[in-house]
Amino acid sequence: MSVEAVIVERWVDRALKSYPSEMHSFLGGEKDPFRNPVGNTFRENLAALVHELLGTMDKEKIAGALDGLVRLRAVQNFTPGEALHFVFDLRPVIGEVSGAISDPLQSRIDELALMAFDQYMSCRERIFELRINELRMWARSAAAGEGGTP
Question: From the CA atom positions of the chain, what is the Rg in Å?
Answer without folding.
Answer: 19
